[in-house]
Every structure is written in structure tokens, then in C-alpha cells.
Write a structure and sequence with these properties.
The chain is of the alpha/beta class and 92 residues long. The chain has one domain (14-90). It is 21% helix and 23% strand. It contains three helices and six strands. The strands form two sheets. It has a three-stranded mixed β-sheet. Strand 1 and strand 2 (24-27) form a beta hairpin. The radius of gyration is 13 Å and the shape is globular.
């Protein structure tokens, strides 16, 4: 079944979220409906986590990941990395 989502009037859902085979990252600051849609579909299967990378909400374009880890920009601070405590983080 398909679910239609928008993030603050943008249909570019992949810019504001990152879905892998082990976790789902959702941008902080979006509507609760945006987060709830991911939680409803994936909540029992994989963790759905609200995050930001370098203070931005375009997390889908700033990272790449899978069950083995997450690649984030080298400018990501230790405070930002603390949000990803359950992942192995590599810098690019």
C-alpha cells in the first residue's frame, strides 16, 4: 500500500528522511503527521529516529547508510553524532 506524505508542503520526502534496511531517520522540525506516518509503517520493524545533521533538516541528501553504519559529512559535530548512538558512523 502506498502512503502519500509531504514535509512542509514539499513532496521531496527523500530529502527529509533516510530509510535503510536497519533504521529510518526523519528530520527534526517537521509536522508530527510526517513522523507518525513513518512510525505507523515501520515502528514495529526498525527504529524511527528524529535527527538533524549539522543543524539542517535535509538529512536524506547529507548521509548514506545501511545496517553496518552511517556516512555523515566531516563537519558533523560530536553533539550531532550523539543522536546516532546506535549506529557506527564514518566521515566522508
Amino acid at each position: 500500500m502506498a502512503t502519500r506524505l509531504m514535509f512542509e508542503n514539499s513532496c521531496e520526502v527523500g530529502v527529509f528522511s533516510k530509510l535503510t534496511n536497519a533504521y529510518c531517520l526523519v528530520a527534526i522540525g517537521g509536522s508530527e503527521n510526517f513522523y507518525s506516518a513513518f512510525e505507523a509503517e515501520l515502528g514495529g520493524l526498525i527504529p524511527v529516529v528524529k535527527v538533524s545533521i549539522d543543524g539542517t533538516r535535509i538529512i536524506g541528501r547529507l548521509c548514506a547508510g545501511n545496517k553496518n553504519g552511517l556516512l555523515v559529512p566531516h563537519t558533523t559535530t560530536d553533539q550531532g553524532k550523539s543522536l546516532f548512538y546506535f549506529l557506527v558512523i564514518f566521515h566522508f
